[in-house]
Amino acid sequence: MVRKASAVWNGSLKEGKGTISTESGVLSNSQYSFSTRFENGKGTNPEELIAAAHAGCYSMALSAQLGNAGITPQSLETTASVTLEKLDSGFTVTKVHLDLTARIPGVDKAAFDKAAADAKAGCPISKLLKAEITLTTTLLAESATSA
């Protein structure tokens, strides 16, 4: 399976602008620039896209791990925080922190912890990154009720 995305850049690093598009069309000429990457400009940036990819990949990998253990989650909400630092060798993604809130009524905590760790190690995006990857989990075992 091959997935494609494209980027177009026009101009110098600080004054130029670019667009990113995906084969699926979900992103279509989405703006990115120096200011969207290093300041607070409107648009996206590569690190934000990596965070989105990692959060989605991890959630799906955890769902698969839980399913293999006979567990069906009510919900899995993952936030990925990507850290970009300037090192002697240049800008580098050094860390990704995954923050998971899982709602799984009646789940065995040890089985959940094993599935969460296995998903972190086995997610294809985790395998791709050379950065340190950390994980914090919050397990909500009770089902949500309306008042």
What order do the helices and strands come in, and which of them pair?
Layout: E1 5-10, E2 17-22, E3 30-33, H1 34-38, H2 46-68, E4 75-87, E5 90-103, H3 109-122, H4 124-128, E6 132-140
Parallel strand pairs: 5-6
Antiparallel strand pairs: 1-2, 2-3, 4-5
Helix pairs in contact: 2-3
If you had to describe this structure to a student in words, what would you say it looks like?
It is a single chain. This protein is an alpha+beta fold and 147 residues long. The chain has 4 helices and 6 strands, in the order βββααββααβ. It has helices at 34-38, 46-68, 109-122, 124-128; strands at residues 5-10, 17-22, 30-33, 75-87, 90-103, 132-140. The strands form 2 sheets. Strands 1-2-3 form a 3-stranded antiparallel beta sheet. The chain has a 3-stranded mixed beta sheet with strand order 4-5-6, with helices on one face. Strand 2 and strand 3 form a beta hairpin. Helix 2 packs across helix 3 (109-122). The longest helix has 23 residues, at 46-68. The mean pLDDT is 92.
